[in-house]
Amino acid sequence: MTADAAAWDALRLSLWVAVWATLLAIPLALWVAWLLARRDFWGKALLNAAVHLPLVLPPVVTGYLLLMAFGRNAPLGRALDAIGLQLAFHWSGAVLAAIIMGFPLMVRAMRLAIEAVDPKLEDAAATLGAPRVAVFARVTLPLILPGVLAGTVMGFAKAMGEFGATITFVANIPGQTQTLPSAIWAALQIPGGEGQAVSMVLMSSAIAVSAVLLSELLARRVAKRIAGT
Amino acid sequence: MTLSLSLSHRFDGFALDLALEAGPGITALFGRSGAGKSTVINAVGGLLHPDRGRVVIEDEVLLDTEGGIYVPPHKRRLGTVFQDARLFPHLSVAQNLMFGARYAPRGSSGPSQRDVVALLGLETLLDRAPATLSGGQKQRVALGRALLSHPRMLLMDEPLASLDGPRKQEILPFLERLRDGPLGLPILYVSHAVDEIARLADTLVLIQNGKVQAQGPLFDVMADPAAVPLLGVREAGAVIEADVLEHGNDGITTLRISAGELELPGVHADAGARVRLRVLAQDVILSLTRPEGLSSVNVLPVTVEAVHPGDGPGAAIALRAGRDRLLSRVTARAVAELGLTPGMTCYAILKATTVAPGSIGR
Known about the structure:
Chain B: Residues 293-359 form the Mop domain. Chain B: This is Molybdenum ABC transporter ATP-binding protein. Chain B: InterPro entries: AAA+_ATPase, ABC_transporter-like_ATP-bd, ABC_transporter-like_CS, Mo/tungstate-bd_C_term_dom, ModC_ABC_ATP-bd, Molybdenum_import_ModC, Mop_domain, P-loop_NTPase. Chain B: Residues 2-234 form the ABC transporter domain. The structure holds two protein chains of two kinds. Chain A is mainly alpha-helical. Chain A has a single domain, classed as Orthogonal Bundle (MetI-like fold), CATH 1.10.3720. Chain A contains ten helices and no strands. Chain A has helices at 3-38, 44-56, 59-70, 75-82, 91-116, 119-127, 132-161, 164-170, 180-189, 194-227. In chain A, α1 packs across α9 (180-189) and α5 (91-116) runs antiparallel to α8. Chain B has two domains: 3-222, P-loop containing nucleotide triphosphate hydrolases (Rossmann fold, 3-Layer(aba) Sandwich), CATH 3.40.50.300; 237-359, CATH 2.40.50.100. Helix content of chain B is 22%, strand content 36%. Chain B contains nine helices and 20 strands. A six-stranded mixed sheet of chain B has the order 7-8-9-3-10-11, with helices on both faces. The A-B interface holds A 118, 120-121, 123-132, 134-135, 138-139, 142-143, 225-229 and B 45-47, 72-80, 82, 84, 86, 88-90, 99-100, 102-105, 128-132, 145-146, 149, 155.
């Protein structure tokens, strides 16, 4: 395999993992953000702490905990293995790691957006006959779209850049679990690999910057529409 | 269609404990700010869980804290118009209206979007965004949106309170149209503005400190001397109905009431129309003999029905003029000097300025 092909493989895998992680995390993050912003329930502080934990734990610890839970010899890992789903040392494990690491960022952005929506608008929608799900879909969601976009971009960027938890949980197998950051790290381990590392650094920087620009553009368009100009 | 409710709710050192009924027409809930009016509206609409209470519309129980019944707001079908219009900022006016219509029960009867647009004069606003509307326009759209959800009843929580005088005048005719029009929708109307209530309400409920102090037909409650302190001495006064006879070239209009004729400036209703006059108690002067040579020509023979001393130096006098009732506010000293007692006849002088254009309706 040429060095270039390995880089492109890593890029493809990273994009694949990040897209999956983001798509899977959005609904869950929205739900948790809504729970934290709008509901009062027993264990809310605990949920909040759990969501934010990956932000403060060393990523390698998170990866290790994932390995403990989903490894082949762990009960959860065995159960999933039985239905043909293997997470450890598999790209789907990288997706899980990316979801968990990006989750606090996504939830935080979405929660702030939901808290900024006047609950009186939601009340008004309910008095018009809209059930709770419809109120969320037709009133809350359109109003928090900029926040959802921001959270999504952050989650995506985090998924693209996640390294510690991923390499601990799924290792660094070229073509299978080697994401862009893992490949950069691997290239830097080889004498004379800097050249290849630099091209991959440029790739990942370009993706991160364009993601932020795109979300800014979309958020601005949404905000404009809401302001009615 | 009748709504009956009893509520008991305690919050922030304030206790609400009341029972009332709202039948057809406009039932106004009057009280100073903090009297608990909005709490009533929110409990009826389902936005607030009262400590204890029961809300029944027709035969359907919407809330019964003892029986563990709580119908969520979206199933109550009580259209609500709030003081802050609460239009959805991301939707155009037309889309806001459609939001109301979308959740109207299938097969329910009620106005169509075209009816509502015509009734409320929204034709030119449909493509606008809520952020670009004036306060009065927003309130018209909010009203239209509520109507299109085909509610069984409208709840209005101070819908005009955040509007200035001219904007209020812009909305009031629409509310009158709603009351008198073919929709025949019952309305529970919360307000702390006596002029709105005098103009709109059929039934009046006075609330103070979380309790109902008086309730009954508007004309009765407004003419009740005991209601004077509740409404405020400057705002209290009877509401009577009058027929517009003719407009003079000098801007003075002749109106007929059951006890005679009145001549008033600034009446804009057409000849033949029936209007409401609000006669402030402090603007009615009493005289034992028919006065001569007065600048006011509006003198009515009246009978004293009751003398109601107030807490201060004033007293409220209930009067009967023909089939109508009036209130006069005089000093306790004047009561003694004139020897005002129930049953005696005298003359009520109404100042020509008594009736402001804003207090005339229907």
